[in-house]
Amino acid sequence: MKLDMHCEMILDEYRDRLPVLNKMKEVVLDILRRTLKENNMVVTAIEGRVKTEKSLTGKLELKGNKYHTIDDITDIVGVRIITFFSDEVDKIAALVEQMFEIDWDNSVDKRKMLEIDRFGYMSLHYICRIPKSLYEDPQQPLLNEMRFELQMRTALQHVWANMQHDTGYKSEVEIPMEHQRSLNRLAGILELADEQFSRIRKEINDYRRNVQSLVASGNFDEVPLNGDTFRSYCELHPFRRLAVKIATINQAELYEDSPMPYYKILLHLNMKTIGDVERMRTECSDGAYQLALIQLAGTGLDIVAYSVALQNLCIVKILKLGFGVAGLTSMFDAIYGESTYNAQRADRIYQQAVRANLV
After folding, report:
1. Does residue 239 lie in a domain region?
2. How far is C-alpha 43 from the geometric centre of its chain's CA atoms?
């Protein structure tokens, strides 16, 4: 199909503006990447494209009489943000509204479509301009005048849209009813999965906030011991006082490392709640310090790891439970990996514990 003179003029405008269009795409992508990073938002992808001449020609062949000038075509520059979760679309949209000038009359929220077969098209589409306050190039004033399309959708919506494209679901060839029904059912399943992922993440985040609140309030016996609760407990720095006291033996510097590797040791010691860990801390603290006195005597160490406090607490607890050298060896195997040296280390520490009257 041959384009009429009006559409050919629009194509000529497109060719003249192509350098600016490519510049606009890069500017928008840079702004979005920087803003998302500043707001600690992680997305699965940020994509951008400038419509090819072939694609624009096809659009003009179908709808050429709809456009007076090239400025009426709002999707020549298109950018897409793909999120992991559906609720993140609205958070990103709020950021976009603060950054760009939104053409609300031409923007559309396709997520409000209710048909089951529309899942792949349920993006939030904003038609935007770059405000001069955000970016300006006096040599290219069109950057602030032209509009671009910004789509925001989830990863599952994106995958489904691509599947539809690859299967010819959007083509002019009619899909047999049984295949269309299967595709529609699959769209419903993916939409439900999208909703459930967001719901589950919200419930997990609510659980973590509740755990943090319980830990912060000191209700340790009500808090089950798991990776999340132990991490929240460690954020209170419960072992700092003992660690500083141990470092003071040699007037050493305290090296801040993580006590998290000892979480699995606490489980092996059959601790069920954070209250159990807290009781070990209070009941074994004196023994852990006495052991450190023997360990550091005459060493001249000027750096002591923060985790040595928890390590010594675990050592004292293991010895109190009567697990002896074998128990210490198992602890070192779990922390450092299995090695014949761990048995030697365990035997040496056991002898130190004997000298400290801990056995």
Report:
1. yes
2. 8
